[in-house]
């Protein structure tokens, strides 16, 4: 089976549409979304409705939870905090209820191979796992969940690593990629061989930047969309 994997859409509708079209061209059998549907970008409502329309299984990311629930700990000053309340104000009760309905994990067997997926770190959507860290740390979670594939969203960087006979992978970010180049990230996973292949999909920045400016969202985001990095990354 060929599984398309997307993550970190971040309210960027043109990027989502381009990524879905690319996965259709790849002939994937199913598409899984690893969270952060909203946040930063100008299209939170449209992205949620597109995921609804496509009927895609999705899990909750840190941003989805922050928008859907009043967290006691505020975000630090910056782009995220500047867009949080705006994002929440764009959504009606139906969209907020949808975000609240998202589970924190996806667990499913594909052809006898068990796959588990989380946003961030297992049990902590706002956490991060170092996919280049010690093998034993990654193997621990594969063994803990009895899985052969562990998929994680949240880093905004596509990476796959074989761990013994298993696989740990992050598909990167659809809407706010930090790979150093413009485009939406997507991943195609062969669930039989556990081979992961990454796609970088170009999309038209015009409508995105128009809406970004029209809504008065932080202009620094335009630089990220164009270059694939935040300015402080150098």
Automatic annotation (TrEMBL):
It holds the Pfam family Metallophos_2. GO terms for cellular component: cytoplasm. Transmembrane segments: none annotated. GO terms for molecular function: phosphatase activity. InterPro entries: Ap4A_hydrolase, Calcineurin-like_PHP_lpxH, Metallo-depent_PP-like, Pesterase_MJ0912. Residues 1-193 form the Calcineurin-like phosphoesterase domain. PANTHER family: BLL5683 PROTEIN, METALLOPHOSPHOESTERASE. Belongs to the metallophosphoesterase superfamily. YfcE family. This is Protein phosphatase. It comes from Thermus arciformis.
